[in-house]
Amino acid sequence: MDTTTLLTYFAKASYFLAAVMFILGIKRMASPVTARKGIVQAGLGMVIATLATFAITGSHNLHLIVLAIVLGVAPTWIWGKKVAITDMPQMVALFNGMGGGSAAAIGAGELLKYAEAGAAPSKITLTLAIVGALIGSISMTGSIIAWAKLDGRMDKRFTFGGQQAFNFIVFAASVVAGLAVVVWKLDTTLIVAFFALALVFGVLMTLPIGGADMPVVISLYNALTGLAVAFEGFVMNNEALIIAGTVVGAAGTLLTQLMAKAMNRPISNVLFSNFGGGGGGEAITGTQKAIEASDAASLLYMAERVIIVPGYGMAVAQAQHKIWELSQQLIKRDKSVKFAIHPVAGRMPGHMNVLLAEAGVPYDLIADMDDINPEFSTCDVAIVIGANDVVNPVAKTDKSSPIYGMPILDVVNARQVIVIKRGKGTGFAGIENALFYADNCKMLYADGQEAANKLIAELKAIDSGGGH
Amino acid sequence: MIDIFLALYIFMLAAFTGQEIISRVPVILHTPLMSGSNFVHGIVLVGAMVALAHADTTLGKTIGFLGVMLGAGNAAGGYVVTERMLEMFKSSKGK
User: Fold this and answer.
1) Which of A110, A151, A186, B10 has the highest local Cβ count within 10 Å?
2) Quick check: is A389 catalytic?
3) Does the global pTM surpass 0.80?
4) Which residues of A358-371 are buried (b: 16+ CB within 10 A; e: fewer)?
């Protein structure tokens, strides 16, 4: 056996080890107890695979490879360390876009090489290179637009007449260009046109999608990048790419479905309809009843079971630390406190859990929608902070409402509801919230942090006999 | 090129594995998980490295260079943010 063959064997064995570590790592991420070890294990797998690859590449363009790795790792590592937890969704979108771009670049490089040689290894390889490049390109530019939107760098939605038809034409054109490369002619101009169309389509496809649907879109692009990586893995004859890419593609698809289900929006609906136009639904009669912090504190003081329902508004107000402080005050007074999380609270499913974890809330106090919903009827006080559409009972009662059918937290069943809110505005979807008009609901108009501070102060005042 | 049927089997088995390992993840870990799987497809870096090593023309080298840089960014950034998020999950019953 010569040295090259031996080195290739060594690299392939390392890829095998890395693939096992990735799968075990993701599996360990399934429980909060082992999750940290899981990512460290997957990280180790990545380092092993990367180092082993130098055995294949040898000294060809070695300086370029090392320079590119350093230029890729350094800024993202620093950025990732510094970014605020509230901004996590856009970071995931951005890193995902990079992965898609990398897969597209592999495809582009190989295709151009074939064009230069005037022949491809086989039609199958050529097709896989094209499909991977198409998906990777869409995922890259789409993710960048998703990042820009979530980061507030871009107007939330961008629509024009005949948009869907126009987008479809661009998509069809890129598919036709790709097909032409495979069956007709390995031509450089054609390849460039194919990439340009695919990249433009990624932008066009993401532009009309509103911020509320972005989690589903990012998850979808994550799955797409996985697939693109797997396809380019077939082209490069690289098992590590095939296995890791496919696992992510499959896992990401399932995750996307779970998310879309939680929002009660079919994926096609997210991608091809313009949501968030607002309005619709029956008018709600009644009035919103305000409450002062001192009275709200008295209600909490007398309560035994308290459920806190946080929404993204809480995170925007940076109130999670204060809310946890308030919860600790309640726990100290022997009250049962739980946090109820809607599957799509925050900007990504599970985002709220991360935000609460950052504030120090133990994960065993945090309950999923299905577990907590039966408990609202035996709960004395439910505090809603920064959540709106996910607690709106019209999702169950009013068939004409745009959010009809969306699963909600049954906050309205609690004996008493306190809603902490800055003003009388509607939620993200622009729909009136029937909960705010319910008899058992009181509105505490204040900024999240300020409200929590006041409630803590009032609770202490009651303790020292200064209360009502 | 790997035998096409062998490749299809790998693809199928890996797809089922992906579905299986994710279906047991609780909702509270969905964000770190999405971020974690985002990190895993950073393995594309390895493919990009091989592609760059085989590039001869200036254009090929430029594209390969971009590929490696983006792939490395995907892997490094994905790892850092996932690790940061998972580190914060703590139980009230102590460690």
Assistant:
1) A110
2) yes
3) yes
4) bbebbbebbbbbee
